[in-house]
Write a structure and sequence with these properties.
Shape: globular
Low-confidence stretches: 1-7
Mean pLDDT: 92
Radius of gyration: 19 Å
CATH class: Alpha Beta
Strand content: 15-25%
Number of strands: 9
CATH architecture: Alpha-Beta Barrel
Distance between the termini: 41 Å
CATH topology: TIM Barrel
Number of helices: 11
């Protein structure tokens, strides 16, 4: 972890991005993100001419039925809020959880594999939802106390994976600083139209992950390499008044320089109206 500060530098120098997102696990937020390291990170990133877009605080089990486990998760989130503020970010991000206590069937490369959650015995969705809402109320209030927005990245299959669930969540939590980190690929995975989702979510979109999807098995493609119509996506974002960051998120590749550059060039052409 000590060398984390330098890992993104070669990629930036080749691709010339404007912003960077940072992430913290419960362990790294305790051990790595010390005041000294945070200051070093800020200076290094500023020296590259970059802005820190968001800090992602890893908060698994935020809806855990055991209050003791949930208390620890919320303490980790509180540490993430302090780190986010110290880094000078405008908002903190967390991911939506799976149904409480659920596990997933093992998945191999075999085409005949069945995929499903294995639900916890006695699972109660309404109780799970209330627990999640209560946790988010606490998180949104804590983030707001530092002047931060709180965005959720909602993967397919999570407790609030669709725009309809997002709107219900906003209503139940009742915090104006709670919004969505809209990931274009996650929506396509669920066969939900990205443009429609943008119109539905409106000013609750706090940041955007640009990641393409082939509509079948590959959901981690550079923008322009799948079925997502990014010119229409950008038009929709402009329509709802979005003026935040669009992050290229091309993970799990052996050639990040190539695919990040490819994604950046496609999005730049879209923004310039060349497509």
């Amino acid at each position: 972890m000590a060398q984390l500060i330098f890992l993104f530098t070669p990629l930036y120098r080749l691709n010339r991005f404007e912003c960077i997102d940072l992430i913290g696990t419960p362990e790294s937020m305790k051990e790595y993100y010390t005041p000294k390291t945070i200051e070093k990170l800020r200076k290094h990133i500023e020296g590259l001419g970059l802005e820190i877009g968001t800090f992602v605080s890893s908060t698994p089990d935020i809806n855990h039925p055991d209050p003791a486990v949930r208390k620890q998760v919320l303490e980790d989130f509180a540490r993430g809020v302090d780190i986010t503020a110290a880094l000078g970010c405008s908002h903190i991000n967390i991911t939506a959880p799976r149904p409480a206590g659920s596990t997933q069937t093992p998945v191999t490369s075999g085409s005949a594999d069945k995929v499903s959650y294995i639900m916890a015995e006695g699972y109660d969705f309404k109780k799970d939802w209330r627990t999640y809402v209560d946790s988010l109320k606490y998180c949104a209030d804590l983030a707001g106390s530092k002047g931060l927005k709180l965005s959720l990245e909602c993967f397919a299959g999570t407790i609030c994976s669709t725009p309809h669930a997002w709107l219900r969540l906003f209503e139940d939590v009742g915090a104006p600083n709670l919004g969505i980190q809209l990931d274009t690929s996650h929506l396509v995975t669920q066969r939900f139209d990205v443009v429609f989702a943008i119109y539905m979510t409106g000013d609750r979109i706090f940041n955007v992950h640009a990641k393409d999807n082939d509509g079948m098995t590959r959901g981690n493609l550079p923008p322009g390499c799948g079925i997502i119509d990014y010119p229409l996506v950008i038009d929709a974002l402009r329509h709802v008044g979005y003026d935040g960051i669009i992050s290229v998120e091309v993970e799990f590749t052996h050639n990040p320089r190539r695919y990040n550059q490819q994604a950046k060039e496609h999005l730049e052409k879209v923004l310039k109206g060349l497509y």
